[in-house]
Design brief:
16% of the residues lie in helices and 42% in strands. The chain has 249 residues and is of the alpha+beta class. It has one domain (26-248). The strands form two sheets. Strands 3, 4, 5, 6, 7, 9, 10, 11, 12, 13 and 15 form an eleven-stranded mixed β-sheet that branches. Strands 1, 2, 8, 14 and 16 form a five-stranded mixed β-sheet that branches.
Length: 249
């Protein structure tokens, strides 16, 4: 009888060991944005020189990254959730190198990352909203006008050497664009993928449309006179993003 009891205990132990075997987890993907001017990571209050000779600084840099997705040639699309308010200098919001993530990704290979800069039309004038679209973050004009898609506030030095304010608020439906960045990413179970992306403001203001700050340093996207600036910024944004590395853990 004792032998039977002992054997049963061994068998139970084996079943216990079998049940604690970890179930393979779907992969996780984090998008990590680093904000730069050329090769320099931006620092609050520091001045950066442009190809035009003007120098400028960042006291504030905030923008919405919306409805990002990974796509492959077969048409498979893996969406990240919603709208994310990226804040380059607010460490309390954990967005200094703004991070957007998927915790339960599909296993597949992807060759394109797409996302919007700004708030998509379905949400832009939808009234009071929660999460990162909360109006308390100061990223909205009015319910009818909609959200400010990107805020860059700082200073610039003009041709006389005088320091002037720099206030660029990008918004309105015309400004909402989706951008595509090449990526080579093959997802496997039990892995976390940190995708590092540079957001280069030298290209936002220089390439292919040179945006001068002198006599053009305060823009609220508020009227027809701002349309050429909106068009130039949104076109330049197409060249401003690059995947620099992918860390696999």
């Amino acid at each position: 009888m004792l032998g039977v009891i002992a054997l049963s205990a061994v068998m139970l132990g084996c079943r216990d060991k079998e049940t604690v075997e970890p179930t393979p987890l779907n992969p996780k993907v984090n998008l990590i944005f680093t904000h730069k001017v050329g090769n320099q990571e931006i620092t609050q209050g520091q001045f950066y020189t442009r190809t035009s000779g003007e120098s400028f600084s960042f006291d504030m840099l905030k923008y919405y990254l919306s409805e990002a997705a990974l796509v492959n040639d077969a048409g498979d699309t893996l969406y990240f959730t919603g709208h994310h308010l990226m804040d380059a200098f607010n460490a309390n919001r954990k967005k200094a190198s703004g991070s957007v993530k998927i915790d339960d990704a599909q296993m597949s290979s992807f060759n394109q990352l797409i996302f919007g800069i700004g708030v998509s039309p379905a949400y832009n004038t939808s009234g009071d909203q929660a999460g990162d679209l909360d109006p308390g973050f100061g990223m909205i004009w009015t319910w009818s006008t909609g959200y400010i898609f990107m805020k860059h506030e700082g200073q610039f030095v003009d041709s006389t050497g005088a320091t002037q304010p720099l206030l660029y608020h990008l918004g309105t439906p015309r400004a909402y664009q989706r951008y595509s960045v090449p990526i080579q990413l093959q997802l496997k179970k039990d892995k976390t993928y940190n995708v590092n992306i540079d957001f280069d403001f030298a290209k936002v203001y220089n390439n292919p449309n040179l945006i001068t700050f002198t006599d053009n340093n305060v823009i609220q996207s508020s009227g027809s006179q701002d349309i050429p600036w909106i068009n130039a910024v949104t076109q330049n944004l197409r060249n401003a993003f690059a995947v620099t590395s992918i860390q696999i853990k």
